[in-house]
């Protein structure tokens, strides 16, 4: 970023307290920084949590496959091919989807240009997370649950909250930026 | 701040305050020695380790971050380099006690502790005066950072812009930080080295302005950034203006220590004394260079007409080593050690009395007897000798 | 340190020594015990991170990182618990990674300290080499499965040493005298 403004040589010395440049700490500017920050952070969170759940899912698949292998249920070649296929599938579907959200959100936070693709992806992810949480609640009510399931629920619920926050901060950021633009150009929002 | 200000500019301030060349040399040596007096150095001269005023890089790498280790780190850095501005200040938002304790350690000039630091040095010799000047100068350079490892206070993020004034125009550039300590800071490319991000609250990487590298120490730096504690508010720091105030406050404080002024008050700057040199000083402060030693040295030598030797850490080492046990406290390093322990003891006590245990426990010698760290017995003996 | 902190340090150290001793006396339970400790450690780290978020990091710019980190650590803890049913090799790989990392860090610190003429570099180098050896032993015994007890014995000694250090810390003089 490069801004140019006129200044008077040594005019900072005229002001006893301080600075020749004022800090931009009015509500609109602070909110703009806040929502841009939250947007980037939740984008990171979505990606990191996504990567971890993929690794977890992959490990579980492998462990099931390993048990079958030891029991002699699956030939080795099929096991290797299966694990590579599972990894590729998980990677392509999971990571690339979340990567799109991460990239879009960070770009919007940094550049200020509105992007809608990542919000659409985030809404799909939100729907999926909602389904996960609802199915857990259904299971807990009708079939009972143990401590391990509860801890997993905490993970899914946090993932859901982070996606919600990502979408909310994206919309709030747009609103604040519109207001700031209107204030600078003297127009209305 | 760096050697340019702590050594050469402190010499100039002392000389302008009325000290002789020889006196000014001891003052500026002591001011710079605060950045050199580590436990490693003290082990080498068999001095008390509690008098350490800084930690070397490898000491930091070895430093424990358990409770005692953190208190030791905080005692050193909060007492000598990041003097807290207000030990009773509350954040704007409701927060936990742990957060409040760290928040209250944020450094800044003109605080009650800064005034106490200067008053404590009065009548304690030139070494104590030099040490106090280091502390005062650093309150200006290190403001908004805390002398304790804390990510929630000291972290900075990528929102960090340098403001440069060129040809009557003001420009803002995003600063790029890298974590390679072998890379030199490059003011032209706006590339600076900082410590790597560590999410652990108590990692030594999060001590002081480590996350912003050496950048806040450069006198030319004017910048806009978002401190971790400021809830998305930004801070604009204008180092040339701040350093000018630091310099003039040092002259005022040194005049007080010399006995020319009766009372020391905060928010007072001796602008009159520097009036004939103001443009020259501003020229040095605003020049974009990472080391201003040569400019400050030339200015100081022009003032006094004497040659100022380069700083040599071992200059007074032999004097201290050769002295017998009873007369060690009369040597330059001996008096510096006493001043350092006295300052550390005072700051630890004030932090402790404010209900904050970040710097550890402080016990009042008068009430409890000598039960604390043994090194401080030397300070007590000196006090008793002075009383007699 | 306050009396409570001294007490905590002493009791914590004592429990750690006791755990090391138990591991030494009953190595056949070793892998299970290590797995339980691993699970407990990860869960505690996760909870600590969440506590850190709610007590401090929520006021910090970008502090939500701690929340995400905490949740992932708790989930890792759950995974570690599931690993109990896995063969010992997985636990040993974990030990290898942890000890090799600490070992390499210690050696780097020691070499830097040596360059700067610090006195403590030899101890640090020995600790680093010890950690690295432990890591290598873990992988060797873990994969061959011949004598996994030896690794558990070494691990137990390391745990006991940590406990003793914590207990010693409880008796140190720490207060700074204030002389007016």
Structural description of this entry:
The complex is a heterotrimer of chains A (189), B (388) and C (180). Helices cover 77% and strands 2% of the residues of chain A. With 189 residues, chain A is an all-alpha fold. Chain A has one domain (27-178). The longest helix of chain A is centred in the N-terminal third of the chain and has 44 residues, at 27-70. Residues 1-19 of chain A have low confidence and may be disordered. Chain B has 17 helices and seven strands. Chain B has helices at residues 3-17, 21-33, 39-44, 57-62, 67-80, 97-103, 112-121, 126-141, 151-154, 239-258, 271-274, 278-286, 293-304, 317-322, 332-353, 365-368, 377-387; strands at 160-166, 169-174, 176-178, 191-193, 222-225, 235-238, 362-364. In chain B, strands 2-1-5-6 form a four-stranded antiparallel beta sheet. In chain B, strands 3-4 form a two-stranded parallel ribbon. In chain B, a hairpin with a 2-residue loop joins strand 1 and strand 2. Chain B starts with a helix and ends with a helix. Chain C is mainly alpha-helical and 180 residues long. Chain C has one domain (3-169). Chain C has helices spanning 3-25, 30-55, 64-82, 88-115, 121-144, 148-169, and one strand at 176-178. In chain C, helix 1 packs antiparallel against helix 6. The longest helix of chain C has 28 residues, at 88-115. The relative contact order of chain C is 0.17. At the A-B interface, strand 1 and helix 1 of A face strand 1, strand 2, strand 6 and helix 10 of B.
Produce the secondary structure layout:
The complex is a heterotrimer of chains A (189), B (388) and C (180).
Chain A: E1 4-6, H1 27-70, H2 76-111, H3 117-143, H4 147-185
Helix pairs in contact in A: 1-2, 1-4, 2-3, 3-4
Chain B: H1 3-17, H2 21-33, H3 39-44, H4 57-62, H5 67-80, H6 97-103, H7 112-121, H8 126-141, H9 151-154, E1 160-166, E2 169-174, E3 176-178, E4 191-193, E5 222-225, E6 235-238, H10 239-258, H11 271-274, H12 278-286, H13 293-304, H14 317-322, H15 332-353, E7 362-364, H16 365-368, H17 377-387
Parallel strand pairs in B: 3-4
Antiparallel strand pairs in B: 1-2, 1-5, 5-6
Helix pairs in contact in B: 1-2, 1-10, 1-13, 2-8, 5-15, 7-8, 7-15, 8-10, 10-12
Chain C: H1 3-25, H2 30-55, H3 64-82, H4 88-115, H5 121-144, H6 148-169, E1 176-178
Helix pairs in contact in C: 1-6, 2-3, 4-5, 5-6
